[in-house]
Amino acid sequence: MSESKLKPILPAANPPAWLGVMGGGQLGRMFAQAAQAMGYQVAVLEPSQDCPAGQVAQRLVNADYSDAAGLDALAAQCAAVTTEFENVPADSLSRLAQTVFVAPDGHGVSVAQDRVAEKRFFVSCAPKSGVLPAPHKVIAAQEDIDAISDDLLPGILKTVRMGYDGKGQVRVKSRADVQAAFESMGKVTCLLEKMLPLAYEVSVLTARGHDGESVVYPIAENVHRDGILFTTTVPGPNVSEESALKAQKAAQAIVAELGYVGVLCIEFFVLTDGSLVVNEMAPRPHNSGHYTIDACVTSQFEQQVRAMARLPLGDVRQHSAAVMLNILGDVWFEGDRDDAREPAWHEILALPGANLHLYGKDDPRRARKMGHLTFIAPTLEQAQQQLNAACAVLGIAA
Ligand code: ATP
Ligand code: MG
Fold this sequence. Notes:
D-amino Acid Aminotransferase, Chain A, domain 1, 9-stranded antiparallel beta sheet, 31% helix, binds adenosine-5'-triphosphate, binds magnesium ion, 5-(carboxyamino)imidazole ribonucleotide synthase activity, PurK_C
């Protein structure tokens, strides 16, 4: 008997039900926009007053992520609750789950929050997923540093919790480097990962429904700059069909093992010898999946709505080649000047296939994600050409 036949099937939550989201950032904003387009009402729980998602949601519950009264208000109003960032306290999701359907659940989120739990989980899935993470070792005390084997160096020391956009990471060549880095990070538990020879980086976006059915989007190829996602190109120009299929199958095996409901994105490395290594997962829509808004039949945000509302998952078909460029606060500043000016959006929007998404943040700062641009075109070459033209307008080295 299939898994779906064993689980009780909750009825769908149809519009105009309320859907709740933990977190008020840009992912929550784009989620709210997708939900509202389908006729849902959206409530956001977020401690800050003016936030990207709060600007568009019908209700903003201004409360800390672990505030019991705030959580109970969200649960009482909503037919289902989701999260837009992985550092939401897993206990908060568990509290919500006592009275409302929560997707993803606290378990999936807690595994993704903790690099040690995540690596263990990936290793445990390997017989089914066919992929392993990078060789690694937990560094929690001096003895662990003394016991580092030579083949883990050079490596990257990463904090176990709260890392994002390359923050909480130090590249290390020797045990002395590890020691210094461990001390500089306040001796919090870290993970030492062997530095691998990357040919390129890819991500796979999947969604799994309450009934155990899952869908998988085309493979995306990601370029990072200074630890932050710079561009996503889909279909990935360097990815062989074999690697793409392997990564897609691995992602579906991983979400099934996790018993996950909702959208989840898995990052993989493709090494110079062509082999595939699983890096990390995000239990939510992902920056590398933003292209789905403009280039796929069902966006990753609509897919999250469908999964949490127990609706059938949508068609993941990509109808146009796509290149996504993150827009950081840097483009508001000319050279080293510190007075911000608005970029020439009218020139960007004159380019064929341009889709501009700005997140409503009124305080541009360097390295802050302010929005993104997706170029869609019949061919990848055309989309890339428009992206290059946009980079020239924005003063970004393409
Ligand atoms: P984000 O949340 O923005 O995806 P992060 O801060 O959680 O990033 P990782 O994705 O683990 O951290 O690492 C950031 C980048 O560092 C990777 O995209 C990759 O370019 C590089 N990197 C990480 N681990 C390794 C490794 N073991 N070998 C080589 N490069 C690595
Ligand atoms: Mg990453």
